[in-house]
């Protein structure tokens, strides 16, 4: 069983509100990913970290999201101003290096009303 | 930019039957290929990887890779109702740190 822990499992926010979700990666995994999975099950890569440093992120993440992976604290992803189109399952995942198995959490399901 | 396409979108097979899932990718530099399975309400979980051309068998699951044809597949023998799930192909290049996922195949195995 994956030991990537995501909280909360469900999050409901109004448009314009901040939405923050957290992730504890598997112990010892330096690489952390965030993906958005929409209602059609499509994955959109958002951002990844190696240790505390951002490796890659898409434009949307850079402009509208705040993300960090501090040492000895959970990683977090926060939407600064939620929009209806942000309603999705947000999946956090970790791995021990590039191109090895990626372990996913159960996700945070965000609904923006 | 890497494009990963899966077919079919959905598949229904009888219990004990063979399920065949297909995946094509666009980047010829792709090196690492994974199949993930996602049950309802759960995050995806890796089933198996394949990195070299040819077949790789793990229990009831066989993956096939043909890099020249930009094609990878997964075959599930003796399908069980518990195999009913979404199946995703994930592709990455060396040092990319960013697997690209296909849109998935929804498999239903009926008793």
Summarize the structure.
The complex is a heterodimer of chains A (113) and B (111). Helices cover 5% and strands 50% of the residues of chain A. Chain A has 113 residues and is mainly beta.
Report on the structure:
The complex is a heterodimer of chains A (113) and B (111). The longest helix of chain A has 6 residues, at 59-64. Chain A has one helix at residues 59-64; strands at residues 5-7, 10-13, 19-24, 31-37, 43-50, 53-57, 65-68, 75-79, 88-95, 103-104, 108-112. Chain A is mainly beta and 113 residues long. Chain A is 5% helix and 50% strand. Chain A is globular, with a radius of gyration of 13 Å. In chain B, strands 2, 4, 5, 9, 10 and 11 form a six-stranded mixed beta sheet that branches. In chain B, strands 1-3-8-7-6 form a five-stranded antiparallel beta sheet, with no helix packed on it. At the A-B interface, strand 4, strand 5 and strand 10 of A face strand 4, strand 5, strand 9 and strand 10 of B.
Major interchain interface with per-chain residue totals: A-B, 25 and 27 residues
Q: Are there runs of chain B of 5+ residues with pLDDT below 50, and where?
A: none
Range of helix content of chain B: under 10%
Largest sheet of chain A: 7 strands, mixed
Helix and strand content put the structural class of chain A at mainly beta
Q: Kindly estimate the percentage of residues of chain B that lie in beta strands according to DSSP.
A: over 45%
**How many β strands of chain B by DSSP?**
11
Topology readout:
The complex is a heterodimer of chains A (113) and B (111).
Chain A: E1 5-7, E2 10-13, E3 19-24, E4 31-37, E5 43-50, E6 53-57, H1 59-64, E7 65-68, E8 75-79, E9 88-95, E10 103-104, E11 108-112
Parallel strand pairs in A: 2-11
Antiparallel strand pairs in A: 1-3, 3-8, 4-5, 4-9, 5-6, 7-8, 9-10, 9-11
Chain B: E1 4-7, E2 10-14, E3 19-25, E4 30-38, E5 45-50, E6 54-58, E7 61-66, E8 71-76, E9 85-93, E10 100-101, E11 105-110
Parallel strand pairs in B: 2-11
Antiparallel strand pairs in B: 1-3, 3-8, 4-5, 4-9, 6-7, 7-8, 9-10, 9-11
């Amino acid at each position: 069983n994956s030991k990537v822990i995501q909280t909360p499992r469900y999050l409901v926010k109004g448009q314009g509100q901040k939405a923050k979700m957290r992730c504890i990666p598997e112990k010892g995994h330096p690489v952390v990913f965030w993906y958005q999975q929409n209602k059609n099950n499509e994955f959109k890569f958002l951002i990844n970290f190696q240790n505390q440093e951002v490796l890659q992120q898409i434009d949307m993440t850079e402009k509208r999201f705040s993300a960090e992976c501090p040492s000895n604290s959970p990683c977090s992803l926060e939407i600064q101003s939620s929009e209806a189109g942000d309603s999705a399952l947000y999946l956090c995942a970790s791995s021990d290096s590039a191109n090895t198995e990626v372990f996913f959490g159960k996700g945070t399901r965000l609904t923006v009303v | 930019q890497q494009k990963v396409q899966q077919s079919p979108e959905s598949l229904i097979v009888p219990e004990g039957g063979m399920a065949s899932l297909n995946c094509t990718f666009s980047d010829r530099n792709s090196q690492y290929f994974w199949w993930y399975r996602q049950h309802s309400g759960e995050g995806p979980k890796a089933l198996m990887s394949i990195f070299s051309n040819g077949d790789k068998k793990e229990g009831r699951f066989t993956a096939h890779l043909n890099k020249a044809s930009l094609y990878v597949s997964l075959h599930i023998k003796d399908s069980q109702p518990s195999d009913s799930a979404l199946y995703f192909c994930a592709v990455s290049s060396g040092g990319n740190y960013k697997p690209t996922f296909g849109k998935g195949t929804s498999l239903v195995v009926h008793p």
